[in-house]
Specification:
The protein is mainly beta and about 90 residues long. A hairpin with a 2-residue loop joins strand 4 and strand 5. It starts with a strand and ends in a 7-residue tail after the last strand.
Length: about 90
């Protein structure tokens, strides 16, 4: 597999990331939720509908960053995600 950006993202308590899209992009983005809470929401817009999800801790998620998305941390605690860009993801099983 080919790695791109690898970084830790902190979304401060009460913080948010505005609606955005990564446009035409050939890399996959995987979010690993390291520290979170039930009031941390990630939202995606598709076909004029908004879908919200809380990613539980210690889970990894392949994310379609071409779709318009945002995150809001409604809690009093910071959220930490490890974000990895890669061109190929294979099963470890």
């Amino acid at each position: 597999s080919k790695l791109g950006m690898v970084c830790l993202n902190k979304l401060s308590a009460g913080g948010s990331v505005k609606w955005h899209s990564h446009g035409s992009y050939d890399m996959k983005i995987v979010h690993f939720s390291l520290i979170t809470n039930e009031n941390d929401l990630s939202e995606v817009r598709k076909d004029d509908k908004t879908y919200a999800m809380n990613y539980p801790e210690r889970e990894g998620y392949i994310f379609n960053s071409i779709m318009e998305h945002r995150s809001t941390n409604f809690s009093e605690h910071d959220r930490i995600h490890l974000v990895v860009e890669c061109s190929y993801i294979h099963s470890m099983i």
